[in-house]
Amino acid sequence: MHHAKITDNLTYPEHENTHKLFFGIAILGAIASILGYFINPEQFYFSYLTSFTFYASIALGCLFFVMVHHITRSEYGVVLRRIPETYASFIYIFAILFIPILIGVETLYLWTDEELLATDKLIAGKSPYLNIPFFIARNVLYFTVWSYMGYKLYKNSVAMDKSGDWGLDTAQRKIAGPGLFIFGFTLAFASFDWMMSLDPPWFSTMFGVYYFAMTFQVFFAVVILTVLFLHKKGLLTNTIRIPHISDLSRMLFGFTVFYAYIAFSQFFLIYYANIPEETLWFYHRLEGNWENFTYLLLIGRFVVPFLILLPAASKNNMKLVGIVSAWIVIVHFIELHWIVMPTLHHYGMEFSWIDIATLLGIGGLFMGMFFRQFRKENMVSNNDPRLEASLNKH
Amino acid sequence: MKENTDKQTYGLLAEFKNPAHLMKAAKLTNKAGYKNYDCYSPFPIHGMDDAMGLKPSKLGYIVLGHAILGFTGALSLISWTASVGYPVNISGKPFLNFPAFVPVTFELTILLSAFGAVFGMFFLNNMPKHHNPIFNSDTFKKATDDGFFVIIESDDDLFHDEKTRAFLQEAGAVHIETIEK
Asked: How many CB atoms lie within 10 A of CB A144?
């Protein structure tokens, strides 16, 4: 086996102002969102929650991947790892971005309504868990844990670039091991708090896994798109090569099936048992034109990507993989919209311009933070013990 | 050697010194136009498929065929039995109840795909095969230890006892022998 060396330039070009462009979008989005707040506060809060869960899922998917990468001592992922590492390094911004949700907590969540609690025994029975102080405390815990893990994994990795100290690889595994365990619980409970409790009588024990399945599917799509973006700029073309991207596509394909399995299982158990308090959630999502979106998710998020990515040849076709990835990111947003919005618009999707405003606002900040961080350090961790194996991948 | 006719000869077995020589010999054999030949080594050699000019396996298509058969078979069976053959009212749900059909359809698709993969692999590898004439050769036993072999079978159109022997000699074989049926 020949010795592979990185031949590409490892730093994001100085003159590129990608992050400034995104921060500009963020400012425009923020102004539009504030305007939206004054015009229709209710719509604003729900749109904001949708966009928040959308970007949070991308960052959390990245955090999960980095931890899995370390604990499995993955070889193929070494050249890719800096991208998810960077996405996961600034989860603390989501703690700040969560403040508007806390302000609007009484608009968003029915379980805060004292009058309703007095009459509705079912919801009142859940108030030991679903109350505002505990809700805040839980979210503080989630963001603390995630921010710490994401930041620490990133810092260690960057430190290894400079010092070449392979002992840091062990330190990474020591975070990743317990980290994955904690991640499983915090992600599940966060999804219960953010989205499941929008409909307080409803519950699904699978909801945490369901949010995770969506998250991890879209994660691969986002990394593929980021790599293709870098390639388009002529960066890392000899380091992250087609074999790496086809591996990501294989994972995207695999987690498309996983998503379908989880999403269908959740639906199927509730549908078959036919217990009113469980079935209502899906009943609302089969009302009006929400029904069309339910079928769109089935076909658009599983059937079509599955059939497109099934042949081996399509995983080597970068154009096709890019289109499928972009489509999955869009469908991911539609699905979160489909989860959150029926609480506000019972009888059908009413897409609002405020949805776009919040999407651009948070998205601009998220992507801007990514590129600001990404240009500061090497784009590949160039002293990793398994770098050579990763470069030699075929 | 004298009593050998073409019918009784299975092929020519040539031994090579190391994987690199074997790879080179495989390339030459492929280039010379031989079709019925094979290479043997104690371990997989990377790049051998390309050297021998092997096409990607057809197994995927066999599996796909079985998967489609399982999918349509399961769906038609369960649809017919549940809605035409023996309709039973289950908590007022429709007879043609697709969500309820998914598990069976899924299982049968997977089952037939797995059968297709295993038995298709047997079929493509000419298995089960109880005896292979190359086992008649004592030298060939080294193939599980440190021997690297090319065998050109006598039913190949280009096969000619002397010419093929000379060809293998030229390709760098250290030992050549005739395998009898």
From this structure: 14
Q: What is the mean pLDDT of each run of 10 residues along chain A (394 residues)?
A: 70 88 95 95 95 96 95 91 94 95 93 89 90 95 96 94 88 94 96 94 93 96 95 89 92 96 94 89 90 93 95 92 96 95 88 93 96 91 86 80
Residue A133 token pair: 């102080």
Query: Rounded to a whole number, what is the distance in Å from the CA of A274 to chain B's nearest CA?
Result: 9
ipTM of the complex: 0.78
Distance (Å, whole) CA A379 – CA B118: 43
Nearest to B102 among A268, A274, A312 (CB): A268
Cβ separation A272–B60 shorter than 8 A: no
Q: How many domains does chain B have?
A: 2
**How far away is chain B from the Cα of A325, in angstroms, using its nearest Cα?**
24
In a domain, A384, yes or no: no
| B4 located within any domain | no
Q: Is the pLDDT of residue B138 over 50?
A: yes
Nearest-neighbour CA in chain A from B20: distance (Å): 13
Q: What is the pTM of this model?
A: 0.88
What SS3 class is residue B39?
A: strand
Least Cα distance to B53 among B22, B27, B24 occurs for B27
Amino acid of residue A206: M
> Counting Cβ atoms within 10 Å, is residue A119 exposed (0-12), middle (13-18) or buried (19+)?
exposed
Q: Are residues B68 and B110 in the same domain?
A: yes
Contact A84, A223 (CB under 8 A): yes
Confidence of residue B7 (pLDDT cuts 50, 70, 90): low
| B contacts of A264 (beta carbons < 8 Å) | 99, 102
**How many Å apart are CA A305 and CA A299, to the nearest integer?**
9
Q: Do A312 and B60 touch (CB under 8 A)?
A: yes
* Contact: B102, A271; criterion CB under 8 Å: no
- B40 within a domain of the structure (yes/no): yes
| Domain of A240, in residue numbers | 18-378
CB contact under 8 A, B99 and A271: yes
Q: What is the arithmetic mean of pLDDT over B34-63?
A: 86
Residue A130, token pair as written in the block = 């679903």
Given a contact cutoff of 8 angstroms between Cβ atoms, the answer to whether A49 and A366 are in contact is no
Q: Give the strand pairing for B175-180 and B37-40.
A: unpaired
Which of B102, B105, B110, B113 has the most A C-beta neighbours within 10 Å, making it the best mutation to test the interface with A?
B102
